[in-house]
Amino acid sequence: MSKEEKVIKRRILLDGLDQNKSVDQEEYRVKVKEYQLRLLMLQRALIVTKHNFVVVVEGPDAAGKGGAIKRLVEKLDPRTFRVYSIVKPTQEEYSHHYFQRFWNKLPSYGQIAIFDRSWYGRLLVERVEGFATPAEWKRAYREINEFERALTDDGTAILKVYFHITKDEQLNRFKSREADPLKHWKITDEDWRNRRKWDEHNEAAEDMFELTGTYAPWTIVEANYKWYARLKFLKAAIRTLEALNLKP
User: Domains (ranges, CATH) in the chain?
Assistant: First the structure.
């Protein structure tokens, strides 16, 4: 069976995930250091190859994406990675194909790019909020698969991770941010608006997992417990880089 013919046999239902997975503090402290050291070694090995590494991070608001990315890059050599926090397109970007603003952020050979939200916005928020027409976001499944095929054929390792929390946990985190003057900037009216369409966002993500895993499969992270989520993310990054058969 070719990659084009493969299909996901079982649909991933986000609200059916086991969100009770956790680790204790001591295990977290030991494992995070171990994984960060391994990632640093793999990063150093990547530099001298014609491969590069693209990390895509998606998930609902307050799912812990930023904290997980921080642990991913915390001990890496800062000269060979970039983190891009993707916000809504500028007026200039709206005048181009939506991929244009991502193509120019792809890493050179030997380097790493992490996207905190990505081209998958076309299939998520743009679909749910009506920023893309049904014809546009339905066409994007094929466009994205072709885009990722071009990258992987050229030696790019792609890790796509979706952090998910329960609706109740999101509410707790929203309230915590509102009450904390040092984190109040993290909560916006847009976050509350997105929350009102929880089911629509979940359906869009579940369709995305099913239809865009041909060349780079999705890793779904149960993120109610941040320590567990961060370790799973780091392990997925290690596994993706190790598949390149690098020589640390």
Answer: 46-242 (3.40.50.300)
